[in-house]
Design brief:
Helix content is about 0%, strand content about 40%. The chain has strands at about 35-45, 50, 55-65, 70, 75-85, 90, 95-100, 100-110, 115, 120-125, 125, 130-140, 160-165, 170, 175, 190, 195-200. The strands form five sheets. Strands 1, 3, 4, 6 and 7 form a five-stranded antiparallel sheet that branches. Strands 2, 5, 8, 9 and 10 form a five-stranded mixed sheet that branches. It contains no helices and 17 strands.
Length: about 200
């Protein structure tokens, strides 16, 4: 009878259910290994832009089993520190922007693991139509000492005041101011140069 024989499958010493190297009981069983987060990678693309643009941030988690996955923005703790200038970092979804020029050191933390620091630079955006409005105009400087030099002068105390309504830092390099935009032969009254920027608002 199969149930009584000494080599019955249910009783033999090499039965699959009792062997010491059974997959379910060995110490290197895949089901019992603990997968840990090894590193976090932060990839800003690109690494520099203007105050009118943003940089897309991608965070990838790398695990001890060799796998990796892109981490959702909401699962990341972001860090931002000033590297240069006076940037104003703004995080919106996976995008980083700044209304003022400068360098920002960015880090991403996932489950307590920090990414290496990445540097993102922002430069003042070139001026565009609609960025500025004429806020005040004084054509005759004899009305008062507008420039505060202690003297009243018809030309020296005349001024035009512009307001940056763009909400971002704007680069004025190359911008020209004319008395009359209908006269293409006239020389500009003023020419802005390198380093001339207007702060937001």
């Amino acid at each position: 009878d199969d149930d009584d024989s000494v080599d019955d499958d249910d009783s033999v010493s090499d039965d699959d259910d009792s062997v010491s190297d059974d997959d379910d009981s060995v110490s290197d069983d895949d089901d019992s290994a603990v997968v840990t987060l090894d590193s976090v990678e932060l990839q800003p693309l690109p690494t520099s832009t203007t105050t009118r643009e943003s940089v897309e941030l991608t965070v990838t988690a790398h695990y001890s089993d060799g796998s990796s996955e892109v981490v959702d923005f909401s699962d990341v703790v972001w860090g931002a520190a000033t590297n240069s200038g006076s940037p104003t970092p703004v995080f919106l979804g996976p995008n980083l922007s700044s209304v003022t020029a400068g360098g920002i050191q960015v880090t991403a933390t996932v489950d307590g693991v920090d990414s290496p620091v990445r540097l993102v630079g922002f430069t003042a955006a070139p001026v565009q139509a609609g960025d500025f409005v004429v806020n005040e105009l004084l054509a005759d400087g004899t009305a008062g000492d507008a420039n505060g030099d202690g003297f009243t002068d018809a030309e020296e105390d005349a001024f035009v005041e512009f307001v940056n309504v763009s909400g971002i830092e704007v680069d004025l390099d190359g911008v020209l101011i004319f008395d009359n935009d209908l006269d293409n032969t006239a020389s500009p009254r003023h020419a802005f140069g390198t380093g001339d920027v207007s702060q937001p608002d």
